[in-house]
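User: Okay, second chain of the day. Same drill as before: sequence in, structure tokens out.
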Amino acid sequence: MVLIARLHKFLTATVDRKSRSRTIFWLTLSLTFAAVYAILGLKQVFSAEYMVQDDARQHVFWMMRFVDPELFPNDFIANYFQSIAPAGYSTLYKLAATVGIHPLFFHKILPLFLGLISTYYCFGLCLEMLPVPMTGFIASLLLNQHMWMTDDLASTTPRAFIYPIFLAFLYYLSRTSLLPCLGAIALIGLFYPPYALVAAGTLVVRLLCWKNGGLRLSGDRTNYLFCTTGLGVIFLVMLPYALDRSEFGPTYTAAEAKQMSEFAPNGRNAFFRPNPVDYWLTGRGSGMFPKSLFTPVTHCVGLLFPLLLFLRSAFPLVHQIQSKIWLLLQLFLASSAMFFAAHATIFKLYNPGRYTAYSLRFIVVLISAIALTLIIDGVGHWASKTATTFQFKNQVALMTTAIIAVAVVLYPCLVEKFPTVGYIEGKMPALYKFFEQQPKDILIASIAADTDHLPTFSQRSVLVAKEYAVPFHKGYYSRYRQRVRDLIRAQYTPDRAVLQNFINSYGVDFWMLNRNSLTLQYLEDDGWLDQFDTTQEAMLSFKQGKIPALASAITSCAVFQNEIVVVLDASCIVKLTGS
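Assistant: Same drill. Structure tokens below.
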């Protein structure tokens, strides 16, 4: 009985002046798990020479210019991704490169530090809402499991920074620490601008309160101070974005996007879906609720939270929940408002789903941790309430606590290949080294899948690649789409003049082909190419028995080949087809 009572007290005791050591213990344990998960990720990403996170191929490759300014000269794709990179994000990588840390190496180790910072603020924020150190541990553990089972953190793209920075904002806001809160707001704008608008909405919502059965303006002057100064910081940080007149803008309007196959239900960036439930609730980009919201599945416990509040007599720790928990509702309202604003101004404020995705994840993590703590405390309280059937009740309490502990702590053991974060290995090292040995100003034309890897692993420019087909800004994608159309037409045309003109017009130096790419079957099997009208022209040409002019150059102009691809010298193609 004494043992059970001590265990119950150790697990669910609230913070007081004498419990500093207990808080340090649980925080240290939280940081330890965060480090272990990160090390597992590092082990995975450093398991091969050519390994990179999927989305980093878009957002990190151009940063090699910080190491060698001669890379990607006049590269249309690199210029675009550099132009959309938030100032804080690109500056951090530039500072790392300045002290000798290569961008690709930096992108691999950065999740370790982002994870530790996120853990610290998640732990602290949870204690502000329920001052039980074990709850902070559970919350940070659930957060880390989520971060290492989805690709946001490991991508080290701008969205990876929303975890540590926005959690810091919520933490300092809950503690009413003005200067650190303003600093966090500024960092949000510098690293992930869309969530600066969520922060602004949260500050505004806090000016309202529910009183006497209706909404009233808050009587707390602190809320007004945070709101006015916070909005001022957000205005200053966001002003450069508002004034930016990029050559790659503007964004497509809703009417324009609805006519594009890229945004159709089967498109690469599917957005407009016929099913309203899918479109508004769960659709990627358009839906309010991300499909990974309950990843890991232990997050589902958060759904029990309202029931636990209703049965508060059976769960006495409910009375220790602080009023600061209302911050989660304020965050939800602000995020929802931005979600609908983004829908009303399609793509001008980026994807609507991004505004609720991270907010809901933070909310679910914290609510789930609190709910699990309430259950542990409630069962322990029930077991110690009377002396009758003591043995049975203690067994139930121990089993319940053990099941929760095993489910929360050992959940990753049930996940295949944890962490699952989208690391991709380049399978053609000889190809990457071949291009890396070529002049820095070459341009490679190809529609082969492995073209996606060449800017990252070879640091050489490509005319197009599926990875860079981002159809949001008209100034970029209209030109990009034309490049794809011209490339498809040139690769499959039987007209030698069209082929030569394409090479000369774009200044192509090398042409990379899949060994089976000059076939009708290849075009029929490639779903991405199907959205371009020139693909239909090429398929018709095959059906008419016409042979692509490029086929005659495969043997004579090959400068590199393996069992999958053949690389042709473009100048050789021009000479050969011109004879």
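Strands lie at 51-53, 208-211, 214-217, 423-425, 443-445, 461-462, 510-514, 558-561, 565-569.

User: Thanks, on to the next one.
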